[in-house]
Amino acid sequence: MSFPVNLVCTLTGATPGQLAAWRKGPNPLLAPEVSGRPRALYSFRDVVALRTVASLRKEIPLQRIRRAFLSLQDMDLTDHPSRYTLTTDGTSVFLLEGDRATDLVMSPQQQVLVSLDDVFKPFKNWKGEQVVDFLNPRPRLEVRETRMGGWPTIRGTRVAYGTIANLVKDGDVPAEFVGEYFPTVRPSDVADAVDFDRQVESVRRRA
């Protein structure tokens, strides 16, 4: 499953300009696993890693985040960045391993009590904009890596949010009749799918 820029921005809190800057140059912060040209397409792992970066970015300068990513390479930790739990105290970036934390910027060992769950919760990005809950971008939508490759779906189903949004977008199918096409989808599901789709599309218009 590949994620286009506008959906990545909505799920991570990063802007299109930030994503472009982070994937370019001789040492990109995070290059898309799926495709960089002609159109950037990201993997689910990329989205998780970018959400971590955006969450850290609201607290500390980007150069410290870059330093932390370079430290991972120096420590021979070469898995995809999404496999590591990173957090910040507002000054440095820490790699969490069990109940220990390694300071990736300053290098001392410290203890912290933050997990990746904090990154998945709603937060305000560096521009002060509210970023959606990652696992539930709307009350009736959810993101699960093992379902549709992490693409947002109607809760408890394999129905993609966009499938429902596109069905009612032009007014051809009223929300109350969607259940005739998708019996597991309720009107409240439709409302959340349409609302989330509008947010995703608004990123495309601003880009």
Describe the model:
This protein is α+β, with helices and mostly antiparallel strands and 207 residues long. It has a domain at 135-207: Winged helix-like DNA-binding domain superfamily/Winged helix DNA-binding domain (Arc Repressor Mutant, subunit A). Helices cover 37% and strands 13% of the residues. The protein contains 7 helices and 10 strands. It has a 4-stranded antiparallel beta sheet, with helices on one face. The chain has a two-stranded antiparallel sheet with strand order 1-2. A hairpin with a 5-residue loop joins strand 5 and strand 6 (109-110). Helix 1 (5-12) packs across helix 7 (187-206). Mean pLDDT is 85; it is low at 108-114.
Keywords:
207 residues; alpha+beta; Arc Repressor Mutant, subunit A; 4-stranded antiparallel beta sheet; two-stranded antiparallel sheet; 7 helices; 10 strands; 37% helix; elongated
Write the layout of secondary structure elements.
Elements: E1 3-4, H1 5-12, H2 16-22, E2 41-42, H3 44-57, H4 62-74, E3 85-88, E4 93-97, E5 100-103, E6 109-110, H5 116-120, E7 123-124, E8 130-131, E9 141-142, E10 153-154, H6 161-169, H7 187-206
Antiparallel strand pairs: 1-2, 3-4, 4-5, 5-6, 7-8, 9-10
Helix pairs in contact: 1-7, 6-7
